[in-house]
Amino acid sequence: MKPLLAFAFGLVFGCGILISGMGNPAKVLNFFDIAGTWDPSLAFVMGGALLVTAIGYRLAFRMGRPLLASSFSLPTKQDLDIRLIGGSAVFGIGWALTGFCPGGLVPVLGLGTAPLMTGAAILAGILAARWMIQLSYRKTAAEA
Amino acid sequence: MTEFTPLLSFAGGMVIGLATVALMAVHGRIAGINGILSGFLTTQFNQDWAWRAAFLGGMIASPLVLLVLSGQMPEISVPSPAPLLLIGGFLTGIGTTYASGCTSGHGVCGISRLSARSIVATLTFMTTAIATVFLTRHVFGG
């Protein structure tokens, strides 16, 4: 039941990406190109998603707990550290080189070799970063 | 050039929001695609893995829904050559993992909860993305 619903939500999420244009790198790159062939459409994607999510989250949290889980799993970190800012800066550069963010990429994975290649590189990047973060934790633990 | 599609993009955004709210209301989970991908990359195939795999499966299958509804597969156009896709994808994986979130996790879920971290993250990656495209298209390219 739970995976079936998750599949359905993924299907809806993917349709939203495809309808909005977030899955099309040419459109995403034109959104960033404010000095050239600027296409402001993606600001409207954010607007629509934020409107529904901001209201919907409030209603969901009012239920006290999710329908099929014991509690809401929410991030607890508060600090604006170098990992957050540096990581986001690097992500922006990567996104601008490909036109694919992770959410825009997954729904179009089956549509060609370019998204597949980018997807493999993203997974490699995730694993590399996890490994580097683990190493730095171990180093801190050894020094302490 | 790509066509300016404010209504379609707004509608698509609302659909993304619906799925995001549903995942929270039912599973209690953040719809951050980078986090879901990262959680999918594990050797422990438990319940947490199962919902992530199912959600990703649904996303991958979504073009078929549009095929049924509209009679054609969605079309995408990828301007970047293969080496840039590999470098950019790798940087995307590294950056979103260090930042604990991407456009969906920080940009949609986080900002909706008015998280300061997510607002800072989104402003940061939007800024470096715009700067990078300015450099590749107007300074070094073109």
UniProtKB/TrEMBL annotation, chain A:
The keyword Transmembrane applies. Pfam families: DUF6691. Keywords: Membrane, Transmembrane, Transmembrane helix. The chain crosses the membrane at residues 41-61, 82-100, 106-129. It comes from the Bacteria. InterPro entries: DUF6691. This is Sulphur transport domain-containing protein.
From TrEMBL, chain B:
GO terms for cellular component: plasma membrane. Keywords: Cell inner membrane, Cell membrane, Membrane, Transmembrane, Transmembrane helix, Transport. It is a multi-pass membrane protein. It is found in: Cell inner membrane. The chain crosses the membrane at residues 7-30, 50-69, 81-99, 119-140. Its main location: membrane. Belongs to the TsuA/YedE (TC 9.B.102) family. This is Uncharacterized protein. It comes from Roseibium marinum.
